[in-house]
Design a protein that fits this description.
Elements (H helix, E strand, L loop, with lengths): L11 E3 L5 E5 L10 H9 L3 E4 L9 H4 L4 H18 L4 E6 L1 H12 L5 E5 L7 H12 L4 E3 L17 E3 H8 L1 H5 L10 E6 L8 H9 L4 E6 L12 H16 L1
Parallel strand pairs: 2-3, 2-4, 4-5, 5-8, 8-9
Antiparallel strand pairs: 1-3, 6-7
Length: 250
């Protein structure tokens, strides 16, 4: 990254252990949206990695040069870094695209003790993919931002005001990279879903729950929108993920 990091978007690496937690933010967002979860896990004694994914938390122009390959590589690097510094087990949790990365890591790393998904993006309608491609073909580079889908009027996500289309198209191809391999996930999964989500349809969570092979626990949120970690149910989410992480690493 060459541009300055947005205040509050900074990554964190927090000491703890013997077990660890990798915490992943969403598309066009940054560490701000998952810092509460990260700090709750750290307070519970976990070593925590909260990486800032390439192109995020700086400028949308910088993000426009990145893709799924960059974000997934960064997530895997963060997982390997965490596994190298804790002697115990590791859990992974993510919001939205961070949930996509959580699933992707789960299909590749059977040693992970548990996965916690928050409004994870798993499947995208074909018409959305076609619409983004049409905008690109017409010469557009950006569309309106998709961040800060939050019910609480006093809370704001510091996501980009615009959405870069090339990275978005890359993100929309993620279904092909994840869904065929979801049956490889045999560890426990916690799937947290907002019933009112204006970014990722709640049916994504149904697909995820149906495809993974391991045990599934589900929590439905009635008060929060997509960025639920900054919304009315943030305390519920933090407590649930800490309890889940303790259980699967015990």
């Amino acid at each position: 990254m060459t541009a300055a990091i947005i205040p509050g978007a900074e990554p964190e690496s927090i000491d703890g252990g013997p077990h660890g937690a990798l915490v992943l933010h969403g598309f066009t967002g940054n560490c701000n949206s998952m810092r509460g979860v990260a700090h709750a896990l750290a307070a519970a004694g976990f070593a925590v990695e909260l990486p800032l994914l390439p192109g995020h938390g700086t400028t949308v122009e910088e993000m426009n040069t990145t893709s799924w390959a960059d974000w997934s590589a960064a997530a895997e690097e963060a997982l390997e870094k965490l596994e190298a510094r804790v002697p115990g087990k590791v859990v992974v949790t993510g919001l939205s695209m961070g949930g996509s990365l959580t699933g992707w890591l789960g299909t590749r790393h059977p040693e992970v003790a548990g996965l916690a998904f928050i409004n994870a993006a798993i499947s995208v309608p074909d018409e959305m993919r076609a619409g983004v491609q049409a905008l690109l073909d017409s010469g557009e580079e950006y569309m309106d931002g998709i961040g800060s889908d939050i019910a609480d009027p006093d809370s704001t996500e510091t996501a980009y005001a615009k959405t870069p289309l090339k990275p978005l198209l890359s993100m929309l191809e993620v279904e092909q990279a994840i869904v065929p391999d979801l049956a490889n996930i045999t560890c426990p999964s916690l799937i947290i879903t907002s019933r009112q989500d204006h970014v990722v349809p709640p049916q994504n969570s149904d697909l995820l729950a149906d495809k993974v092979a391991g045990p599934v626990e589900r929590i439905w949120l009635d008060r929060s929108y997509h960025v639920a970690t900054l919304d009315y149910d943030k305390d519920v989410i933090e407590a649930a993920i800490v309890e889940f992480a303790r259980r699967v690493t015990s």
